[in-house]
Each structure stands twice: as C-alpha cells, then as structure tokens.
Amino acid sequence: LFFGSDGALVLGQAFDEADRMGAALPAPLLAARFGPRSPLIALPAINDTKRGILVGEGHPPLLFCSQPIVTSDGEGPSRGTMVFGAWLTEARQEHLRKLTRLRLSVRSFSAPAAPPSTPADGGFQVSPQSEDVLTGLAVFPDPDGRGALVVEASLPREVHREARRTIGAVLLALAIVGAVLGAATLL
C-alpha cells in the first residue's frame, strides 16, 4: 500500500499466495485501520516506523510494517507512507510450525475481551507444562488496542528427559557398586 502525504491511498495491491494471482484489498480493513488520519500511516518523523499485528473480525491476523517514503539517503520530507503486510493464515502458521519444529497455537482476541491466562505485561512467559513439555506464551497487542494475538509454543523437554535417564543410570551404578562392596565387606 502506498499512501500520499495527505493520507489518501495512491496505490494498493494484494497477492494471493495460494492462487499466485492478484487479489482484492479488503475494503473494510482499509477503511477501519488505514484511513487518512490513521496513526498507522501518519508518521510524525522521517525515521519513524509502525509495525505489529492487526487483529479483527472477518480476516486472519495481519502482520504489517509502515514506513515513510523518503529519498534513498533517508532524507525527507516524507512523500507519504508505504505499508507492507502479510496475513497470518493457517498455511503460514503451518509453515512456521515446520520451520521452528514447535507445536504452535495462535489465537486472536478482540477487545475488550482479555486473553485468558496470558502474561499481564503483554510480554512472554515460559513455564513447564509437565515433566516432558515446556510451554512458552507470548502476547502481541494490536497497536490500536482493539485486541491481541496470543502465540503458545510447546517444546518437548529433551534435556530434562536425558538428565533423568542419566541420574537413573548413575543411581543404578551406585547401587550395584554398593552391593558389590557390601558383599566384599561381609566376605
């Protein structure tokens, strides 16, 4: 998306990865989030950027980044704002699961409903879910305060499991050595 210095949409183009063709821009999303006075495109300084995740009804979460249009040297004045975005579709989530080798769960919540059991500061937390699984939870708030995206990742605790096996082997070896030494002392 390219917006002029007055905030009007100059050029907007979308691409459907599944069909490998151009796609229509969602007019309700453009009107609600990228209007002429939107803080997502009205950037006060030439080195400002806005980025984050937009959650809303009727579309998957949108990862976006907006930057002022300046010269190649990074000098102004700004000629407008350029916005890049990518939908966090189920296919993209599956790609992330394969790439990270984690069990990922992505949930979005619209305000005023708060996401249950999430970190209070909008950050992340890591905690053991069980003896064999470690879980991380991250909250990505919508920049407009309209909701949040909650990402939960589960990872098998391989190191913990291997440590338990090693401790068991050492204890078994100590028991055998103790029994042999005890038998030798008795003899």
Structural notes for this entry:
There is one protein chain. This protein has helices spanning 27-33, 90-100, 158-186; strands spanning 2-4, 9-11, 14-16, 21-23, 50-54, 62-68, 80-87, 103-110, 124-128, 133-141, 147-156. By secondary structure, it is of the alpha+beta class. The protein is elongated, with a radius of gyration of 26 Å. The model has no long low-confidence stretch (mean pLDDT 81).
What is the makeup of the main sheet?
5 strands, antiparallel
Strand order of the largest sheet: 2-1-7-6-5
Radius of gyration: 26 Å
Which of globular, elongated, flat, extended, rod-shaped describes the shape?
Answer: elongated
- What do the pLDDT scores average to? 81
Number of strands: 11
> Structural class of the helix and strand makeup?
alpha+beta
Q: What percent of residues adopt helix (DSSP H or I)?
A: 25-40%
Q: What's the SSE pattern?
A: EEEEHEEEHEEEEH
Total helices: the number is 3
Query: Poorly predicted ranges (pLDDT <50, ≥5 residues)?
Result: none
Proportion of residues in extended strands: 25-35%
- What's the end-to-end separation, in Å? 88 Å
